[in-house]
Amino acid sequence: MATPARFPDAYPPDGSGANLADILERVLDKGIVIAGDIRINLLDIELLTIKLRLIVASIDKAKEMGIDWWEDDPALSTGARRRELAAENDELKERIAALESARNAEATQGATREKTAASTKRERGAVTDESRS
């Protein structure tokens, strides 16, 4: 004697049910948005607000919607990391050039002061020699 099944089959034998791959393909093709907010209040004073947004879509669909933040995130994109490093490198080169020009200007001013001091000293020496005569 055959006993009836306690649970129905997960997939009907005629194949009319959608499998996980089909569902995932539809979701990625169309995209799905899940949004929610969590607020914690105490005596009508808002203590904490958390806004949650979840978008599940293919990369192509996300780009169609104007979402492409991963392309500019250095942690996720090698191109963004290269751009960030190039900008940092340019900034450091500018700072080095400014420091070197300031150092050269100081050296030039120091040399000018030394020449002025030496010529002043010579002039004073000449004046003292004349006063002795």
What does this structure look like?
The protein has helices spanning 20-30, 59-64, 78-132; strands at residues 32-42, 45-56. It is an alpha+beta fold. The longest helix is centred in the last third of the chain and has 55 residues, at 78-132. It is elongated.
| Low-confidence regions | none
Shape: elongated
Supply the helix-strand structural class: alpha+beta
SS strand fraction? 15-25%
Q: Gap between N and C termini, in Å? A: 145 Å
Number of strands: 2
Summed up:
This protein has 133 residues and is α+β, with helices and mostly antiparallel strands. The protein is 54% helix and 17% strand.
Write the topology of this structure.
Layout: H1 20-30, E1 32-42, E2 45-56, H2 59-64, H3 78-132
Antiparallel strand pairs: 1-2
Main attributes of the structure:
133 residues, alpha+beta, two-stranded antiparallel ribbon, 3 helices, 54% helix, elongated
